[in-house]
Specification:
This protein is of the alpha/beta class and 185 residues long. It has 5 helices and 9 strands; from the N terminus they run βαβββββαββαααβ.
Length: 185
């Protein structure tokens, strides 16, 4: 995590991909690491497939700010196709982005990618024909952005899921945590 006492992260997802839930899981994982965290959903009359913004604040001190984030330190893009319609740079003051992509794609000077869709499909994390990539993206974001350890992520998943679906989501987070890569060229 950044040396800043307050880190602000933007999550851009499509309705149905689990971006809001991902923010909650990462906030819980950060709290397990002794940090303060806020997960803030931002949506109106969204529908499946519409772009949804979620915000995540993490700090080593109590967070007094309770608004949406205008310029984030980093971002996570849950669908590579979002980059075709949204200029992510307009929402960033930092330079780190994590993208759900099966191949390297440079968005900023520090871009990470993980095949969250492939992971979701492999593990059959699909609802109504849509791969649910949130837990894979949680694992990738936790590692790439330094938000939390894999152990904290796995414990935080227990706040959202149970039974067999918990185990499958834990596996998605583990695979992504271990396979997220920085774009080097």
């Amino acid at each position: 995590m950044s040396a800043l006492s307050l880190v602000e992260i933007l999550i851009l997802s499509r309705g149905g991909q689990g971006g809001v839930t991902a923010a909650r899981i990462l906030a819980a994982a950060a709290a397990l690491e002794g940090m303060y965290a806020q997960a803030i959903p931002h949506f109106g009359a969204e529908r499946r497939g519409a772009i949804v913004r979620s915000y995540l604040r993490i700090s080593d001190k109590p967070i007094r700010r309770h608004s949406s984030i205008r310029k984030a330190d980093s971002a996570a893009i849950f669908s590579r196709k979002i980059l075709d319609v949204v200029d992510v740079s307009q929402f960033l003051r930092g330079d780190t982005v994590v993208v759900n992509s099966s191949s390297p794609i440079r968005v900023t000077s520090r871009t990470y990618y993980v095949d969250a869709t492939g992971i979701a499909l492999k593990l059959k994390l699909v609802i109504a024909g849509w791969p649910v990539v949130n837990t894979a993206m949680v694992g990738a974001m936790a590692k790439a952005l330094g938000i939390a350890s894999l152990d904290s992520v796995l414990k935080a998943l227990e706040t959202q899921f149970s039974g067999r679906i918990l185990e499958v989501n834990k596996e998605a987070a583990k695979i992504a945590y271990n396979s997220v890569r920085e774009v080097t060229s």
